[in-house]
Amino acid sequence: MNFLDFEKPIADLEGKIEELRHIQDDSGELNIAEEVAKLEAKVERQLRQTYSRLTPWQKTQVARHPDRPRFHDYIDALVADFTPLAGDRTFGEDPAIIGGLGRFQGFSAVIIGHEKGHDTETRLRHNFGMARPEGYRKAKRLMEMADHFGLPVITLVDTAGAYPGVDAEARGQAEAIARSIETCLSIRVPLISVIIGEGGSGGAIALAAGNRVLMLEHAIYSVISPEGCASILWRNQEQVQQAAEALRLTAQDLSGLGLVDEVVQEPLGAAHRERDEAIRRVGEAIERVLHDLAGQDGGVLRQQRRDRIVEMGRGAA
């Protein structure tokens, strides 16, 4: 397991547990189960203490953890018969955003999300979840298809932001994001969005203007990264902790501001420690909301999303 800087005491304890287990396995004579149990209880206490008082910057690190479940993990666990649909019918395919048809808890649905990848090869292939214009145009196409066939849309958001490269800007990055947001606000089917890791800037909201926005306990959602904010305001990367606090980017902050509807609690030690349990909890939350929205009039669903955005603007003002 990859340990974060603030998890060093936990890493040391778990290292001792592994050492004791190896001693027991090698000798076959020493009974050290009691000592292991004591250390495991200590690890649990340390995890509770540590994760109950995370700073916004530490939550940012957790949201970016390389072992955190990604889009494909949720699809594999929660969606049956998933069929990916590629291409934007204008330029090409963007592997940073994946979308397709599948069955979620008995509902036929369109599922769209950012894929960051798990290792160097897949991260490069998916461009670390940072989409180019064709990714957002593909999302727009799939949402319009869902609207045509009366299928709910589920989006899983996990991106540092839209890709800022020259090629992306040349192909109309801002326009593609705006069109994707417009489509989110125009379709007449339920749209449920879940922030599963990072929700960065317009690249995130392009898929997150839903009827209900859920957010994992240790995810983040912000107009800019703490590093970007620090470089603009202070011209100093050492101010990232202060920037993270000022941005109010945690799930708890955003829930208090009314920008997310529900915070999905993560297992002790965050989603990267208990991946299956974290995915199960997200699935249960989506299913509950989907049952709530199913059968509502399309015009009402669309107006809900538009009113939601307007209220956000009034709150900010």
Q: Can you describe this structure?
A:
Helix 1 (8-27) runs antiparallel to helix 2 (33-51), helix 4 crosses helix 13 (275-293) and helix 10 (226-233) packs across helix 11 (240-247). Strands 1, 2, 3, 4, 5, 6, 7 and 8 form an eight-stranded mixed sheet that branches. A hairpin with a 2-residue loop joins strand 2 and strand 3 (107-114). The chain is 51% helix and 16% strand. It has two domains: 5-53; 60-316, 2-enoyl-CoA Hydratase, Chain A, domain 1 (Alpha-Beta Complex), CATH 3.90.226.10. It is α/β, with parallel strands linked by helices. The protein has 14 helices and eight strands. The termini are far apart. The protein is globular. It has helices at residues 8-27, 33-51, 56-63, 71-78, 120-125, 133-149, 166-170, 173-186, 201-205, 226-233, 240-247, 251-256, 275-293, 298-316; strands at residues 79-84, 97-104, 107-114, 153-159, 191-200, 212-216, 220-222, 262-264.
- Summed up, the domain count is 2
Mean pLDDT: 91
Within the CATH hierarchy, at the fold level, what is the topology of the largest domain? Answer: 2-enoyl-CoA Hydratase, Chain A, domain 1
Strand percent estimate: 15-25%
Overall body shape? globular
Q: What is the name of the CATH class of the largest domain?
A: Alpha Beta
| Name of the CATH architecture of the largest domain | Alpha-Beta Complex
CATH-level-4 superfamily name of the largest domain: 2-enoyl-CoA Hydratase, Chain A, domain 1
Number-wise, the strands total: 8
Largest sheet: 8 strands, mixed
What would you report as the Rg, rounded to the nearest angstrom? Answer: 21 Å
